[in-house]
Design a protein that fits this description.
By secondary structure, the protein is of the alpha/beta class. It has 15 helices and 12 strands. The protein has a 6-stranded mixed sheet with strand order 3-2-1-10-11-12. A 6-stranded mixed sheet has the order 4-5-6-7-9-8, sandwiched between helices. A hairpin with a 2-residue loop joins strand 8 and strand 9. Helix 2 runs parallel beside helix 4, helix 4 packs parallel to helix 5 and helix 11 packs across helix 12. The radius of gyration is 24 Å and the shape is globular.
């Protein structure tokens, strides 16, 4: 839906998230319900080079290492840290060769430290090694001369983009509800320090793009697994509120945001900022592997999103309908996301397209059924305390509490009755 004359001025940003490379998987075919092997990595990079050849920016959205990487390395009698750095280098080298002139932006995820899941460092030898590995890519053309020093502090930093926009990159692993600290360094107070840094960077940025791995708001998949009895957040309450407040205060300056983590494709509005959730290369959740071409205007706004998806039947990558085409809008803006959100609720056809896209067009997933879509739909716009009421979890929680209370009272009443009967028998004796 982009006018042809305007399209010529657009830049292409390639988003690659949640690769989860398993270097110990020697199979020569792409395997679903497993993390990415080298066969999938090579196939994906070839497709990226063919489909987004003019990418000016490559965004690595975090989680380059396979799940349970430390266990995989130890089972192969290798040091997890050396093996983790080698696997990370394998991914970045493949992309650097495919896009030798592109600027890179790297986000840390909860599977980027071979110490374990949801681990993250402040300082420490592994973070310094990653900083040295990433610096030549992030600082291409002098875009981030202070990258290494900033990244070593905790994995968050800023960089200048080709169109003059500033990239602000967060490490939201610190903010996760299941953050487990660092293994080789002390991470106490890291979330608070990053929040203060973010507020300062947003205040001084007049045209910014925000990148993170774990998004703000609620996890509808985990909420569903909990039978909707409790709304499961991604981030701790204080961190979530702080991030949303910072975005609300400076939303006019943040053109768009990108996150990953959930291996699904969706949209959110975070503090008035349009947020893209990019799905994964890894097909571990039976999702189709995918990467994304972002069409970015000279002013830094995101004009469209084109997903490229692997089809296991044809064993080929192909483009699925863009965001604009799917929802009949012109641009990935907060206003258009609200319009798409409303249409998903109102129009069954639009809702079906959204569900297909959320599942990354995979017949193997089926996360959202039409009659159970509200828990997922509410997560798009209710990123704070209103989510429970919107999704119905608050009502179900009350019902569960009432049921538990009734059951508890019944147990107490039964115990009291048994005690009285025992006493009556003793009195008769």
């Amino acid at each position: 839906m982009i006018h042809a004359l305007f399209a010529a001025a657009l830049m292409h940003y390639l988003v690659v998230s949640d690769v989860h490379l398993d270097p110990y998987d020697a199979r020569t075919r792409i395997v679903y319900a497993h993390d990415a092997n080298r066969t999938l990595l090579r196939s994906a990079v070839r497709a990226m080079r063919a489909d987004v050849p003019n990418a000016r920016v490559v965004i690595l959205g975090g989680d380059l290492l396979a799940h349970h990487f430390d266990g995989l390395a130890r089972a192969a009698h290798q040091d997890p840290y050396a093996a983790g750095l080698a696997a990370t280098r394998e991914v970045t080298d493949a992309l650097a060769r495919a896009f030798p002139k592109a600027q890179f932006l790297v986000t840390l995820g909860n599977n980027d430290d071979p110490c374990g899941d949801y681990r993250a460092e402040t300082g420490g030898p592994y973070l310094r090694a990653l900083a040295a590995l990433y610096a030549p890519l992030v600082d291409r053309g002098g875009a981030a001369p202070g990258f290494a020093r900033a990244f070593e502090r905790g994995g968050y930093y800023t960089a200048r983009l080709p169109n003059g926009t500033r990239a602000i990159v967060l490490n939201t692993v610190f903010d996760s509800i299941v953050f487990r600290g660092g293994c080789r360094s002390h991470a106490h107070g890291a979330a608070h320090a990053q929040a203060a840094w973010l507020a300062r960077e947003l205040a001084r940025s007049r045209n910014a793009v925000l990148l993170m791995h774990i998004p703000p708001g609620y996890d509808p998949g985990s909420t569903t697994l909990a039978r909707d009895l409790v709304a499961v957040p991604f981030l701790r309450a204080g961190s979530n509120a702080s991030l949303l407040a910072a975005l609300r205060a400076e939303r006019a300056h943040v053109r768009f945001a990108v996150a990953g983590h959930v291996h699904r494709y969706d949209l959110r509005i975070a503090g008035g900022v349009p947020l893209l959730i990019a799905s994964s290369i890894s097909p571990v959740y039976r999702n189709n592997p995918a990467f994304f071409d972002l069409l970015v205007a000279p002013d830094g706004s995101l004009r469209d999103v084109v997903p490229y998806v692997y089809d296991p039947r044809s064993e080929r990558w192909h483009a699925e309908p863009s965001f604009d085409r799917t929802y009949g809008v012109d641009g990935f803006t907060a206003a258009n996301l609200r319009r798409a959100h409303a249409e998903i609720e109102r129009d069954p056809d639009v809702r079906a397209r959204w569900i297909a896209a959320y599942d990354v067009w995979s017949a193997r997933m089926g996360d959202i059924s039409d009659h159970r879509s509200r828990v997922f739909w509410c997560a798009q716009t209710e990123l704070g305390s209103g989510y429970g009421a919107c999704a119905g979890t608050r009502r179900r929680s009350r019902i569960a509490l009432i049921a538990a209370a009734i059951a508890g009272m019944a147990i107490v009443a039964t115990i009291v009755l048994l005690v009285r009967r025992r006493r009556a028998r003793l009195d008769r004796v």
